[in-house]
Amino acid sequence: MEDAYPDLTFTHRGSDVVLRGHYSLHEAGWVLDQYLVEVEPDRAVRGGLPVVREIGGRIPQSEDRHVSHDGTACIALPDAFWFQYPKGLSLKEFLDGPMRGYFAVQSLISRGVSDAWEQGEWDHGEAGVLRFYQERFGNESPFVILRFLRLVATKAVRGHAPCPCGSGLRLRKCHGPVILDLRSRIPRCVAARSEERLSAVLREVGSQRPVRSYSKSIGR
């Protein structure tokens, strides 16, 4: 990794070890752009989604630029990340893939490309969670999606239980295969966190909350 990213070095931030320095976008041996970043590897799940912060002040902390209020870059929707990369990614694979895609789009935006996020993106926050699972299960109801998500996050699934979609079929004869596929790709802790977020939103505002229009890259 040192050869590909010589300006990034591991350093201590309190008790944590983070990767810090200038992240360069390369093309055919040329450096097209650079960002001062801090990358904190996922300590909960091996190969998981790192926390990335652009600390050079080039990118505004706004939803339109896909930066959270705490300065964290919205590189990918965690559920979509694990669905696409069920075995996780090494740090270099992450730098070469999803992170490169994110910062490449940021560079395009800074050059005046207004529709740079048009391809390869998800709504983020709880809206992204909802949309991701709506597409997987083919069901628009937030409350049905929440019931599905609980099955993805739970310790065990009973195939003879009624399917949450309301078809009247047993789970194994209906959406069971979709649930098993998701469970094989997405770590339980990630699905549980998404279930918690979606559940909190539905408790607060019910099912009338619109899907928000802002999106974030999944590194395609």
Task: Write a short abstract of this structure.
The chain is α+β, with helices and mostly antiparallel strands and 220 residues long. The protein contains seven helices and six strands; from the N terminus they run ββββαααβααααβ.
If you had to describe this structure to a student in words, what would you say it looks like?
This protein has 220 residues and is an alpha+beta fold. It folds into two domains: 8-122, no CATH class; 124-211, no CATH class. The protein is 35% helix and 18% strand. It is built from seven helices and six strands, in the order E-E-E-E-H-H-H-E-H-H-H-H-E. It has helices spanning 78-84, 91-96, 98-110, 126-137, 142-153, 176-185, 188-205; strands spanning 8-13, 16-27, 30-40, 51-54, 121-123, 215-217. The strands form two sheets. Strands 1-2-3-4 form a four-stranded antiparallel beta sheet. A two-stranded antiparallel sheet has the order 5-6. Strand 2 and strand 3 (30-40) form a beta hairpin. The protein is elongated, with a radius of gyration of 19 Å. The two termini are 21 Å apart. Mean pLDDT is 87; it is low at 209-220.
Could you estimate the helical fraction of the residues in percent? 25-40%
Strand content: 15-25%
Q: Whole-number average pLDDT? A: 87
Query: How many runs of DSSP E, i.e. beta strands?
Result: 6
Counted up, domains total: 2
Spans with pLDDT under 50 lasting ≥5 residues? 209-220
For the terminal residues, how far apart are their CA atoms? Answer: 21 Å
Secondary structure class reads: alpha+beta
* Coarse shape: elongated
Cα Rg: 19 Å
What is the number of helices? 7
